[in-house]
Amino acid sequence: MTLTDAASAAAGSVAADKSAKIFVAGHRGLVGSAVVRRLQNVGYTNLILRSHTELDLTNQAAVKTFFSIEKPQYVILAAAKVGGIHANSTYPADFITVNLQIQTNVIDYAYRYGVKKLLFLGSSCIYPKHAPQPIPESALLTGPLEPTNEWYAVAKIAGIKMCQAYRIQYKWDAISAMPTNLYGPNDNFHPENSHVLPALMRRFHEAKVTGAKEVVVWGTGSPLREFLHVDDLADSVVFLLENYSGLEHVNVGSGKEVSIKELAELVKEVVGFEGELVWDSSKPDGTPRKLMDSSTLAKLGWEPKISLRDGLVGTYQWYLNNVKQ
Ligand SMILES: NC(=O)c1ccc[n+]([C@@H]2O[C@H](COP(=O)([O-])OP(=O)(O)OC[C@H]3O[C@@H](n4cnc5c(N)ncnc54)[C@H](OP(=O)(O)O)[C@@H]3O)[C@@H](O)[C@H]2O)c1
Protein backbone atom coordinates (compact mmCIF):
# COMPACT_ATOMS: atom_id res chain seq x y z
CA MET A 1 0.00 0.00 0.00
CA THR A 2 1.38 3.44 -0.85
CA LEU A 3 1.39 6.25 1.67
CA THR A 4 -1.38 8.03 -0.21
CA ASP A 5 -3.57 4.90 -0.39
CA ALA A 6 -2.92 4.36 3.28
CA ALA A 7 -3.89 7.94 4.00
CA SER A 8 -7.19 7.66 2.19
CA ALA A 9 -7.92 4.31 3.84
CA ALA A 10 -7.55 5.91 7.23
CA ALA A 11 -9.33 9.15 6.41
CA GLY A 12 -12.56 9.79 8.20
CA SER A 13 -11.99 7.24 10.98
CA VAL A 14 -11.32 9.09 14.24
CA ALA A 15 -12.15 12.47 12.68
CA ALA A 16 -15.75 11.36 12.18
CA ASP A 17 -16.25 10.74 15.90
CA LYS A 18 -15.34 13.70 18.08
CA SER A 19 -16.53 11.80 21.17
CA ALA A 20 -14.04 8.96 20.56
CA LYS A 21 -12.21 8.02 23.76
CA ILE A 22 -8.59 9.12 23.33
CA PHE A 23 -5.83 8.41 25.88
CA VAL A 24 -2.99 10.93 25.68
CA ALA A 25 -0.11 9.37 27.63
CA GLY A 26 2.28 12.02 29.02
CA HIS A 27 -0.28 14.85 28.85
CA ARG A 28 1.66 17.10 31.23
CA GLY A 29 4.80 17.17 29.10
CA LEU A 30 5.80 19.52 26.29
CA VAL A 31 4.35 17.31 23.55
CA GLY A 32 1.44 15.72 25.44
CA SER A 33 0.09 19.07 26.69
CA ALA A 34 0.18 20.52 23.16
CA VAL A 35 -1.59 17.43 21.78
CA VAL A 36 -4.33 17.84 24.41
CA ARG A 37 -4.75 21.53 23.48
CA ARG A 38 -4.97 20.65 19.79
CA LEU A 39 -7.44 17.79 20.25
CA GLN A 40 -9.66 20.05 22.37
CA ASN A 41 -9.38 22.91 19.89
CA VAL A 42 -10.62 20.74 17.04
CA GLY A 43 -13.52 19.45 19.11
CA TYR A 44 -12.52 16.13 20.67
CA THR A 45 -14.48 15.85 23.91
CA ASN A 46 -13.54 12.54 25.48
CA LEU A 47 -9.86 12.62 26.43
CA ILE A 48 -8.50 10.29 29.10
CA LEU A 49 -5.56 11.74 31.00
CA ARG A 50 -3.46 10.29 33.83
CA SER A 51 -0.51 11.96 35.49
CA HIS A 52 2.65 9.98 36.22
CA THR A 53 1.61 9.72 39.88
CA GLU A 54 -1.85 8.45 38.99
CA LEU A 55 -0.55 5.86 36.52
CA ASP A 56 3.10 4.81 36.33
CA LEU A 57 3.40 3.50 32.79
CA THR A 58 6.44 1.40 33.71
CA ASN A 59 4.15 -0.63 35.99
CA GLN A 60 2.86 -3.42 33.78
CA ALA A 61 0.03 -4.49 36.12
CA ALA A 62 -1.19 -0.91 36.52
CA VAL A 63 -1.18 -0.33 32.75
CA LYS A 64 -3.10 -3.58 32.19
CA THR A 65 -5.73 -2.58 34.76
CA PHE A 66 -6.00 0.90 33.25
CA PHE A 67 -6.65 -0.41 29.72
CA SER A 68 -9.03 -3.14 30.94
CA ILE A 69 -11.18 -0.59 32.78
CA GLU A 70 -10.95 2.51 30.56
CA LYS A 71 -10.84 0.78 27.15
CA PRO A 72 -9.74 3.84 25.15
CA GLN A 73 -10.34 3.74 21.39
CA TYR A 74 -7.25 5.74 20.42
CA VAL A 75 -3.87 6.26 22.09
CA ILE A 76 -1.23 8.94 21.58
CA LEU A 77 1.97 7.85 23.30
CA ALA A 78 3.84 11.01 24.32
CA ALA A 79 5.08 9.71 27.69
CA ALA A 80 8.80 9.06 27.82
CA LYS A 81 11.86 9.58 29.95
CA VAL A 82 13.64 12.39 28.10
CA GLY A 83 16.79 14.36 28.81
CA GLY A 84 19.92 15.93 27.40
CA ILE A 85 23.40 14.53 26.79
CA HIS A 86 24.40 14.76 30.45
CA ALA A 87 21.35 12.88 31.73
CA ASN A 88 21.66 10.27 28.98
CA SER A 89 25.31 9.57 29.74
CA THR A 90 24.79 9.53 33.51
CA TYR A 91 21.69 7.32 33.56
CA PRO A 92 21.91 5.08 30.45
CA ALA A 93 20.19 2.17 32.21
CA ASP A 94 17.21 4.35 33.15
CA PHE A 95 16.91 5.77 29.65
CA ILE A 96 16.81 2.41 27.92
CA THR A 97 14.77 0.52 30.52
CA VAL A 98 12.13 3.10 31.44
CA ASN A 99 11.42 3.91 27.80
CA LEU A 100 11.24 0.26 26.77
CA GLN A 101 8.91 -0.45 29.69
CA ILE A 102 6.58 2.50 29.01
CA GLN A 103 6.21 1.81 25.32
CA THR A 104 6.02 -1.99 25.62
CA ASN A 105 3.31 -1.79 28.28
CA VAL A 106 1.28 0.85 26.47
CA ILE A 107 1.57 -0.58 22.95
CA ASP A 108 0.90 -4.16 24.01
CA TYR A 109 -2.07 -3.47 26.29
CA ALA A 110 -3.52 -0.96 23.85
CA TYR A 111 -3.58 -3.77 21.29
CA ARG A 112 -4.90 -6.37 23.74
CA TYR A 113 -7.74 -4.20 25.00
CA GLY A 114 -9.09 -3.25 21.60
CA VAL A 115 -7.61 0.20 20.92
CA LYS A 116 -8.35 1.00 17.26
CA LYS A 117 -5.26 3.05 16.56
CA LEU A 118 -2.09 4.13 18.38
CA LEU A 119 0.39 6.85 17.49
CA PHE A 120 3.89 6.48 18.96
CA LEU A 121 6.22 9.47 19.28
CA GLY A 122 9.95 9.10 18.82
CA SER A 123 12.59 11.63 17.92
CA SER A 124 15.25 12.46 15.34
CA CYS A 125 17.93 10.83 17.52
CA ILE A 126 16.83 7.45 16.09
CA TYR A 127 18.88 8.22 12.98
CA PRO A 128 22.56 7.34 12.46
CA LYS A 129 25.12 9.95 13.47
CA HIS A 130 26.26 10.31 9.86
CA ALA A 131 22.86 10.09 8.18
CA PRO A 132 22.44 11.99 4.89
CA GLN A 133 21.05 15.53 5.31
CA PRO A 134 18.16 16.23 5.19
CA ILE A 135 17.48 12.87 6.90
CA PRO A 136 14.89 10.72 5.13
CA GLU A 137 12.85 8.06 6.97
CA SER A 138 14.81 5.42 5.01
CA ALA A 139 18.01 6.35 6.92
CA LEU A 140 16.79 4.37 9.94
CA LEU A 141 19.21 1.56 10.90
CA THR A 142 21.72 2.34 8.17
CA GLY A 143 24.65 3.22 10.45
CA PRO A 144 25.94 3.70 14.01
CA LEU A 145 24.00 6.01 16.33
CA GLU A 146 25.25 9.11 18.13
CA PRO A 147 26.89 7.41 21.16
CA THR A 148 25.76 10.01 23.72
CA ASN A 149 22.08 9.12 23.42
CA GLU A 150 22.13 5.64 21.93
CA TRP A 151 20.31 4.15 24.94
CA TYR A 152 17.32 6.41 24.39
CA ALA A 153 17.54 6.01 20.61
CA VAL A 154 17.59 2.21 20.79
CA ALA A 155 14.43 2.25 22.93
CA LYS A 156 12.72 4.59 20.46
CA ILE A 157 13.77 2.42 17.50
CA ALA A 158 12.28 -0.57 19.33
CA GLY A 159 9.03 1.41 19.67
CA ILE A 160 8.87 2.02 15.91
CA LYS A 161 9.62 -1.63 15.27
CA MET A 162 6.97 -2.75 17.76
CA CYS A 163 4.37 -0.66 15.95
CA GLN A 164 5.46 -2.18 12.65
CA ALA A 165 5.49 -5.72 14.05
CA TYR A 166 1.96 -5.40 15.50
CA ARG A 167 0.79 -3.96 12.17
CA ILE A 168 2.25 -6.90 10.27
CA GLN A 169 1.27 -9.70 12.63
CA TYR A 170 -2.09 -8.44 13.94
CA LYS A 171 -3.12 -5.98 11.19
CA TRP A 172 -3.34 -3.41 13.97
CA ASP A 173 -3.24 0.30 13.18
CA ALA A 174 -0.11 1.50 15.00
CA ILE A 175 1.83 4.41 13.49
CA SER A 176 4.91 6.41 14.51
CA ALA A 177 5.89 10.07 14.18
CA MET A 178 9.46 11.37 14.57
CA PRO A 179 9.59 15.08 15.41
CA THR A 180 12.60 17.34 15.01
CA ASN A 181 13.72 19.68 17.87
CA LEU A 182 10.63 21.11 19.51
CA TYR A 183 9.99 24.20 21.59
CA GLY A 184 7.03 26.04 23.05
CA PRO A 185 4.86 26.26 26.18
CA ASN A 186 5.72 23.69 28.87
CA ASP A 187 9.29 23.33 27.61
CA ASN A 188 12.00 22.56 30.15
CA PHE A 189 13.85 25.75 31.12
CA HIS A 190 16.04 24.09 33.75
CA PRO A 191 19.39 25.92 34.09
CA GLU A 192 21.51 22.76 33.69
CA ASN A 193 19.62 20.26 31.58
CA SER A 194 17.50 22.10 29.04
CA HIS A 195 17.80 22.07 25.24
CA VAL A 196 19.56 24.90 23.38
CA LEU A 197 16.53 27.08 22.66
CA PRO A 198 15.00 27.27 26.17
CA ALA A 199 18.51 27.50 27.64
CA LEU A 200 19.25 30.57 25.48
CA MET A 201 15.90 32.13 26.38
CA ARG A 202 16.52 31.69 30.09
CA ARG A 203 20.07 33.03 29.90
CA PHE A 204 19.10 36.15 27.93
CA HIS A 205 16.17 36.77 30.26
CA GLU A 206 18.36 36.48 33.36
CA ALA A 207 21.00 38.72 31.78
CA LYS A 208 18.34 41.32 30.99
CA VAL A 209 16.95 41.23 34.53
CA THR A 210 20.36 41.44 36.23
CA GLY A 211 21.65 44.07 33.78
CA ALA A 212 24.57 41.85 32.67
CA LYS A 213 26.75 43.33 29.90
CA GLU A 214 27.21 40.11 27.94
CA VAL A 215 26.05 36.53 27.49
CA VAL A 216 28.69 33.98 26.50
CA VAL A 217 27.51 31.07 24.35
CA TRP A 218 29.56 27.95 23.61
CA GLY A 219 30.92 27.30 20.11
CA THR A 220 31.02 29.40 16.96
CA GLY A 221 27.26 29.48 16.35
CA SER A 222 27.75 27.92 12.91
CA PRO A 223 25.90 24.58 13.33
CA LEU A 224 22.58 24.42 11.50
CA ARG A 225 19.51 23.13 13.29
CA GLU A 226 15.79 22.79 12.71
CA PHE A 227 13.08 23.82 15.19
CA LEU A 228 9.36 23.18 15.17
CA HIS A 229 6.83 24.81 17.46
CA VAL A 230 5.14 22.17 19.59
CA ASP A 231 1.68 23.43 18.54
CA ASP A 232 2.61 22.66 14.93
CA LEU A 233 3.79 19.22 16.02
CA ALA A 234 0.50 18.66 17.86
CA ASP A 235 -1.39 19.70 14.72
CA SER A 236 0.60 17.14 12.71
CA VAL A 237 -0.06 14.43 15.32
CA VAL A 238 -3.83 14.95 15.03
CA PHE A 239 -3.46 15.10 11.24
CA LEU A 240 -1.61 11.76 11.20
CA LEU A 241 -4.08 10.17 13.60
CA GLU A 242 -6.92 11.20 11.31
CA ASN A 243 -5.28 10.69 7.92
CA TYR A 244 -2.35 8.29 7.97
CA SER A 245 -2.17 4.56 8.33
CA GLY A 246 1.10 3.05 7.13
CA LEU A 247 4.05 0.89 8.12
CA GLU A 248 6.66 3.60 7.70
CA HIS A 249 7.32 6.08 10.52
CA VAL A 250 6.86 9.73 9.48
CA ASN A 251 9.30 12.61 10.04
CA VAL A 252 7.84 15.86 11.36
CA GLY A 253 9.97 18.96 10.85
CA SER A 254 9.65 22.59 9.88
CA GLY A 255 11.97 22.10 6.89
CA LYS A 256 13.71 25.37 7.84
CA GLU A 257 17.32 25.44 8.92
CA VAL A 258 18.66 28.13 11.18
CA SER A 259 22.22 28.55 12.45
CA ILE A 260 22.69 28.61 16.22
CA LYS A 261 24.00 32.15 15.72
CA GLU A 262 20.80 33.26 13.97
CA LEU A 263 18.74 31.52 16.62
CA ALA A 264 20.65 33.18 19.47
CA GLU A 265 20.30 36.61 17.87
CA LEU A 266 16.57 36.10 17.39
CA VAL A 267 16.07 34.93 20.99
CA LYS A 268 18.13 37.90 22.22
CA GLU A 269 15.89 40.26 20.26
CA VAL A 270 12.63 38.61 21.37
CA VAL A 271 13.73 38.69 25.02
CA GLY A 272 14.94 42.28 24.66
CA PHE A 273 18.48 41.77 26.02
CA GLU A 274 20.54 44.73 24.89
CA GLY A 275 23.98 43.56 25.99
CA GLU A 276 26.51 41.70 23.89
CA LEU A 277 26.35 38.14 22.60
CA VAL A 278 29.85 36.59 22.81
CA TRP A 279 30.83 33.29 21.16
CA ASP A 280 33.33 31.08 22.99
CA SER A 281 34.85 29.31 19.99
CA SER A 282 37.23 27.30 22.21
CA LYS A 283 34.18 25.17 23.13
CA PRO A 284 32.86 22.36 20.87
CA ASP A 285 30.22 23.07 18.22
CA GLY A 286 28.50 19.69 17.94
CA THR A 287 27.36 18.17 14.68
CA PRO A 288 27.45 20.74 11.83
CA ARG A 289 23.99 20.11 10.39
CA LYS A 290 20.85 18.29 11.47
CA LEU A 291 17.72 18.56 9.38
CA MET A 292 14.88 16.11 8.83
CA ASP A 293 13.45 15.36 5.41
CA SER A 294 9.73 15.89 6.02
CA SER A 295 8.63 15.46 2.40
CA THR A 296 6.55 12.36 3.22
CA LEU A 297 4.36 14.44 5.51
CA ALA A 298 4.23 17.28 2.98
CA LYS A 299 3.02 14.82 0.33
CA LEU A 300 0.28 13.69 2.70
CA GLY A 301 -0.87 17.32 2.76
CA TRP A 302 0.43 18.75 6.04
CA GLU A 303 2.66 21.76 6.55
CA PRO A 304 3.75 23.81 9.60
CA LYS A 305 2.19 27.22 10.19
CA ILE A 306 4.09 28.93 13.02
CA SER A 307 7.17 31.00 12.10
CA LEU A 308 10.20 30.79 14.39
CA ARG A 309 9.84 34.44 15.37
CA ASP A 310 6.13 34.14 16.27
CA GLY A 311 6.81 30.89 18.09
CA LEU A 312 9.60 32.48 20.13
CA VAL A 313 7.45 35.48 21.06
CA GLY A 314 4.69 33.19 22.36
CA THR A 315 7.15 30.94 24.17
CA TYR A 316 8.82 33.90 25.90
CA GLN A 317 5.41 35.14 27.03
CA TRP A 318 4.70 31.69 28.43
CA TYR A 319 8.08 31.69 30.17
CA LEU A 320 7.34 35.08 31.75
CA ASN A 321 3.96 33.91 32.97
CA ASN A 322 5.02 30.49 34.21
CA VAL A 323 8.73 30.01 34.84
CA LYS A 324 10.65 33.13 35.79
CA GLN A 325 11.30 33.63 39.48
N1 LIG B 1 11.15 17.93 23.34
C1 LIG B 1 11.60 17.73 22.12
O1 LIG B 1 12.32 18.58 21.55
C2 LIG B 1 11.24 16.48 21.39
C3 LIG B 1 11.70 16.37 20.11
C4 LIG B 1 11.39 15.24 19.39
C5 LIG B 1 10.64 14.26 19.98
N2 LIG B 1 10.18 14.36 21.23
C6 LIG B 1 9.44 13.20 21.77
O2 LIG B 1 8.18 13.52 22.30
C7 LIG B 1 7.90 12.66 23.41
C8 LIG B 1 7.53 13.50 24.60
O3 LIG B 1 8.61 14.37 24.88
P1 LIG B 1 8.43 15.72 25.73
O4 LIG B 1 9.47 16.64 25.26
O5 LIG B 1 7.00 16.11 25.76
O6 LIG B 1 8.87 15.19 27.18
P2 LIG B 1 8.42 15.74 28.60
O7 LIG B 1 8.06 17.17 28.53
O8 LIG B 1 9.45 15.29 29.59
O9 LIG B 1 7.09 14.90 28.88
C9 LIG B 1 7.10 13.52 29.07
C10 LIG B 1 5.88 13.14 29.86
O10 LIG B 1 5.92 11.73 30.12
C11 LIG B 1 5.59 11.52 31.48
N3 LIG B 1 6.19 10.30 31.99
C12 LIG B 1 7.51 10.00 32.05
N4 LIG B 1 7.68 8.80 32.63
C13 LIG B 1 6.43 8.34 32.93
C14 LIG B 1 5.95 7.16 33.54
N5 LIG B 1 6.78 6.19 33.98
N6 LIG B 1 4.61 7.03 33.71
C15 LIG B 1 3.77 8.00 33.31
N7 LIG B 1 4.15 9.12 32.71
C16 LIG B 1 5.49 9.29 32.53
C17 LIG B 1 6.16 12.72 32.20
O11 LIG B 1 5.59 12.89 33.45
P3 LIG B 1 6.53 13.34 34.69
O12 LIG B 1 7.18 14.63 34.23
O13 LIG B 1 5.57 13.51 35.79
O14 LIG B 1 7.51 12.24 34.87
C18 LIG B 1 5.83 13.85 31.22
O15 LIG B 1 4.51 14.32 31.44
C19 LIG B 1 9.14 11.80 23.61
O16 LIG B 1 8.93 10.55 23.01
C20 LIG B 1 10.22 12.54 22.89
O17 LIG B 1 11.18 11.69 22.33
C21 LIG B 1 10.45 15.46 21.96
Automatic annotation (TrEMBL):
Pfam families, per the entry: Epimerase (PF01370)
Question: GO BP, one example?
Answer: 'de novo' GDP-L-fucose biosynthetic process
Pathway, per record: Nucleotide-sugar biosynthesis; GDP-L-fucose biosynthesis via de novo pathway; GDP-L-fucose from GDP-alpha-D-mannose: step 2/2
InterPro entries xrefs:
Epimerase_deHydtase, GDP_fucose/colitose_synth, NAD(P)-bd_dom_sf
Q: What is its EC number?
A: 1.1.1.271
Q: Which UniProt keywords apply?
A: Isomerase, Multifunctional enzyme, NADP, Oxidoreductase
Sequence ranges assigned to domain NAD-dependent epimerase/dehydratase in this UniProt record: 22-253
Please name the SUPFAM superfamilies in this protein's record.
Answer: NAD(P)-binding Rossmann-fold domains
Q: What is the catalytic activity of this protein?
A: GDP-beta-L-fucose + NADP(+) = GDP-4-dehydro-alpha-D-rhamnose + NADPH + H(+)
Q: Which GO terms describe its molecular function?
A: GDP-L-fucose synthase activity; isomerase activity
Q: Which family does this protein fall into? A: Belongs to the NAD(P)-dependent epimerase/dehydratase family. Fucose synthase subfamily.
Q: What is this protein called?
A: GDP-L-fucose synthase
Give the organism's phylogenetic lineage: Eukaryota, Viridiplantae, Streptophyta, Embryophyta, Tracheophyta
